[in-house]
Design brief:
alpha/beta, globular, 7-stranded mixed sheet
Length: 238
Amino acid sequence: MDNDKIKDFYNDFVSYQTKSGINERIFTLYKKMKSLGLKSSSNVLELGCGIGVMTKLLASFVKEGYIEAVDLSDKSVEFAKTKITNKNVSLFTDDVVGYFPKKKSFDFITLFDIIEHIPIELHPDLFKNLSKIADENTKILIHIPNPDFIEYHQKDESAWLQIVDQPIPLQTIVNNAETNGLQVTNFDTYSIWVENDYQFFVIQKKKEYKKVELSKQRNLVQKVVNRLKNIFISIRYN
């Protein structure tokens, strides 16, 4: 399927998106980013920003850093620009598969509920580009519907699906990552609206493993707390 048809679909999708706003899924992803180290000074590349709902939420917290947000739909980006005027936020219309950002270094690259809408034959190019953009400290965050959930909709509730809405198996993501010098460092299947409906990935540049002893990284208070915890476990369970 060509990009023009996909672009037209999402241009027509703007009115629907404006009604949904910040929902539980979006806020859950925002909290996940904070738990992974999102700071006011973080630089974030948001690939597939839509009308900027997540962008605006991020901009409310990221005050000293920079947010670069991109979407294929020009109407979505135009709408986002009317709602987000922060000087540290830049919005662009482009194809996320081969997009190369204006900023050189990012703490986070997000693809939230995006790659299931990108034809799967383009995923090798997408991951190749992600590997070029990311540095050793970048966290690439991918969120997708559980592939089993999409397959269920394909059989029984196809009206819920978008113009491109395909199941993305775990192994496909792992293979595309590893082929391009990346690795999945965290993976979780979890529930938002129905049981096990979403999957969340943290992907980073593959690095040589180094043995790092956690005990040497703890401060005095953390060492005391850890010691007390071990004493409690020993007394309680031995």
